[in-house]
Design goal:
- With about 375 residues, the chain is an alpha+beta fold.
- The chain folds into two domains: about 90 residues; about 200 residues, 2-Layer Sandwich (BirA Bifunctional Protein, domain 2).
- The chain is about 40% helix and about 20% strand.
- It has eleven helices and ten strands.
- The chain has a seven-stranded mixed β-sheet, with helices on both faces. A three-stranded antiparallel β-sheet has the order 2-4-3.
- The N and C termini lie far apart (about 90 Å).
- The structure holds 3,4-dihydroxyphenylalanine.
- 3,4-dihydroxyphenylalanine binds next to β9 and β10.
């Protein structure tokens, strides 16, 4: 090819390429265009390959003409690319735009479990009275669950508790001092092995709290407890709140005052409350607290078994032996303790007759609270 022929080809390629720019309307077509005209085997590159056949003097002229066309097309492409990508972005945002005339989405939202609601209500009553909240472990030693609470070994009161023992025994060792004091076995004189268990009540937390804190001590401890028991009103795992008030000059009058206030805050101001003598090894005297049946107002119905009263908590004056176990002088300090079942209160409050409903995670039940 002659120089003139190549220059003519370049000129016609320029005309073609500039003309084709108008039809570019997407980034994709822009890319194809680049390959077609400027790519490795594109039209312009093909023309430049034929430069080798020219007279050396002619090559620069033709080369410059080709480069001019290349630069012209490239600069046009740059501004075109900007315009096209702006348009594409606009299209995307338009597609994403919300139609505010459509009805909104409804999202399922979480809510508190009825047991948590009741537990929080109980906590807030005692927090207002100046009590603090304590926690203790679910896996306990025999020492904290029974012995320190004045349950002698082989005492029948232990049987009332339907204890779950955990396989094996935990030897007392410096590595597990939290299990309680080690006692040498009378025959071998080696530290005795302590049976581990799931706590049957939250009372062991009294002991843990009194070991760590000197009176005055006003505490409650909410938590899960475990017993070998399973029917419509008993579950193998349920929840209690333990309470303890130890100070100088605490009397049975304080116990009655605090617990009456508690019952009336939960179930209603005018509610009748009754204190009945009872036995728990860690208190003396011990009492059970009854409230007038919240369903029949004391007249007698199926729920209260006809006598008009419902037992809702256990309580008593902390036994001197318990205070001695935690090195608090019973001559200087006295206290009262109480324990209540959260499920029982929730069942009475909401009129629920099957304890298992709390654990079945049925949203139709849980959503009602
Ligand atoms: N721990 C007892 C139980 O689970 C409840 C109880 C009774 C706790 C009397 C107390 C108390 O602190 O004084 O059956």
């Amino acid at each position: 090819m002659t120089k003139e022929e190549i220059l003519a080809k370049i000129e016609s390629l320029r005309a073609n390429a500039v003309g084709a720019l108008d039809s570019l309307d997407s980034l994709h077509s822009l890319q194809e265009y680049k390959v077609q005209f400027l790519g490795k085997s594109g039209a312009l590159t093909e023309i430049l390959k034929s430069l080798g056949g020219l007279h050396p003097e002619d090559r620069p002229v033709v080369g410059q003409a080709a480069n001019r066309v290349k630069a012209e097309i490239e600069s046009k492409l740059v501004s075109l690319q900007e315009t096209i990508s702006l348009k594409e972005q606009q299209k995307q945002t338009e597609a994403k735009q919300v139609d505010i005339s459509l009805p909104g989405f409804s999202f399922a939202h979480g809510f508190r479990h009825p047991l948590r609601i009741v537990e929080e209500e109980i906590e807030s009553i005692f927090l207002k009275l100046g009590f603090s909240i304590y926690e203790g472990p679910d896996i306990e030693s025999d020492y904290y669950n029974f012995e320190a609470l004045n349950f002698p070994p082989d005492h029948p009161a232990r049987e009332m508790q339907d204890t779950f023992y955990i396989g094996g025994m935990a030897s007392h060792s410096p590595a597990s001092p939290s299990l309680g004091p080690a006692k040498p076995d009378p025959r071998s004189h080696k530290p005795v092995a302590l049976p581990l268990l799931l706590r049957t009540h939250t009372s062991p937390v009294q002991i843990r709290a009194m070991e760590k804190n000197k009176p005055p001590l006003y505490m409650i401890c909410p938590g899960a407890v475990y017993r070998h028991d399973d029917d419509v009103t008993h579950s193998p795992m349920f929840h209690q709140v333990e309470g303890l008030m130890v100070d100088t000059k605490i009397t049975f009058g304080d116990l009655k005052g605090v617990l009456t206030l508690f019952c009336q805050t939960i179930f209603g101001k005018k509610l009748k409350v009754r204190f009945r003598p009872s036995f728990f090894p860690f208190v003396e005297p011990g009492a059970e607290v009854d409230i007038a049946c919240v369903l029949c107002n004391g007249k007698g119905c199926r729920v209260c078994g006809g006598d008009g009263w419902l037992e809702i908590l256990g309580a008593g004056m902390v036994h001197p032996a318990v205070l001695e176990n935690v090195k608090i002088d019973p001559k200087k300090f006295t206290g009262f303790a109480f324990g209540l079942g959260v499920e029982r209160i929730a069942m009475l409050k909401y009129g629920i007759d099957d304890i298992r409903l709390f654990y079945q995670t049925d949203l139709r039940f849980l959503e009602q609270f």
